[in-house]
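Can you make up a polypeptide sequence alongside its tokenized fold?
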Amino acid sequence: MKFIRAIPAISRETKAARSSGHPVVLVPTMGNLHAGHLSLIRRARKLAGAKGTVVVTLFVNRIQFGPTEDFASYPRNLKRDTALCREAGVDILFAPSDAVIYPGAHSTYVVESRLAKRMEGASRPTHFRGVTTVVAKLFNLVQPDAAVFGAKDWQQAAVIRQMTTDLNFPIRIVVAPTVRERDGLALSSRNAYLSPAEREQATVLYDVIRAARLAVKHAPAPLPAGVLRRKLSRLVAKQRLAKLDYIEFFDPKTLEPAKRIDRGTHIALAVFFGKTRLIDNGRL
């Protein structure tokens, strides 16, 4: 595995990889890798094939964090992440510093203005601007044939796919399934922030998704969104350490809000446990 920190080197190595005629597949991450990230790397290897090139990036992107969010405390473990990537068969690991990605007085941003407005965009107003900016930069540097993202961040994947289309990046966006703990909690680097009591109650996010699926399954007709949202909100409220941010229902492709909930509608939610904010989503 080649470990790269500088832009000239990543550009040179990925250019050589593309010249081989075999696929180059990118997996952007913020590090602190877990089984969910490793599943994305396995998907990337399947797409690239034995002779293709899998590129993983490790970069905690400061511009997607709000001023009161956890950029400074976000878990970082470069040594462990490097070992995991090597064991997973990654070909190139790109781990730039903040100064490499945002040199000098950086003042240019990439903004998706439609899909990014609701849900995460409403709760974290500058978040997606940071995501699309750094992903566009990584796309330019690596120029992959495909890039793999996780379904846990469903809205993020939709925003990136829209950006890719709008800016004419010749890149296939692949969304891999969410990986969960045995009790249903979606894997996330932020799970490490949870106290034992919070971790026990954090399964409520998946409980909400399952309850919504059950309600839709047994409903004789589409359910009013407001009615179902109130029912699910009460489920969150039963957990004394949980504070609901939002529950939303929407079309999985367009992200347009759904007023009546039926099979095929998507649900997404965000819940606070102290200062830790977790998200999840699923198809009903």
Notes: The chain has two domains: 2-176, 189-283. DSSP finds ten helices and eleven strands in the chain. The first strand starts at residue 2 and ends at 4. The mean pLDDT is 97.
